[in-house]
Amino acid sequence: MVLASAAPGIFSAGLDILEMYQSTPERCVAFWRALQDAWLNLYGSRLITMAAIEGHSPAGGCLLAMSCDYRVMAEGKFQIGLNETKLGIVAPFWFTDVMLNTIGHRETEKALQLGALYSAQQALSIGLVDKVVPLAEVMPTVEGELKNWLQIPAAARVITKTSMRKAVLDRLRSQKEKDAQFFADFINRDSVQKSLGMYIASLQKKKN
Ligand SMILES: CCCCC/C=C\C/C=C\C=C\CC(=O)SCCNC(=O)CCNC(=O)[C@H](O)C(C)(C)COP(=O)(O)OP(=O)(O)OC[C@H]1O[C@@H](n2cnc3c(N)ncnc32)[C@H](O)[C@@H]1OP(=O)(O)O
Question: Which PANTHER family does its entry note (predicted)?
């Protein structure tokens, strides 16, 4: 399975910030449960999963990419990373766990505290992506890599993948409702709503 985007220049802009701003606790819980289920399915997928990152990939977009088995990113101006702290929010523990599994403890600690967004070359240097190529070559490179992965006996690959990811998946599975409730409480704090409001205004201002 290849994750790609139809939006030029954006692999994924992450979660819909407007869903987290001035929403109701009930809607926030439903929103979070949908995200949890999508991620559990992706990270726990038995399929070979590859990200064709042909544009920006902040926050939830970075989570999607990191949750794949292999990442190819376009060189150039695009950025990738978990930038949550810059919005005044905190990356949930399962976002952090996936990043730890991808780039290790030291790089994750720096990346998360700073809310760092990396260029493709920087991302390559810390192991956040596996390959950087010109934009037009992203999809052909993914397809070529997929052929390599498809040559591995499926049962052996799936057992290996499942055992490598089980602890992280089980950690969320065991506390889904608590995590959803925590998200709804956290996101509706006055201070967090204020930060999100300012961030949304800054995105709109950038456009004008
Ligand atoms: C211990 C406690 C832990 C508890 C856990 C609790 C909380 C954690 C909670 C949440 C975790 C969230 C993870 C996320 O994914 S948050 C989302 C982060 N995303 C971003 O910061 C991206 C913001 N967008 C951008 O930087 C740019 O838009 C981008 C670089 C992607 C593209 O730039 P471009 O110039 O091409 O396009 P724009 O003109 O900026 O955008 C077009 C249009 O789209 C709107 N928009 C962009 N991103 C989002 C988004 N994520 N959600 C909603 N809307 C978005 C943008 O405002 C423009 O709208 P409009 O002006 O055309 O109406």
Answer: ENOYL-COA DELTA ISOMERASE 1, MITOCHONDRIAL, ENOYL-COA HYDRATASE-RELATED
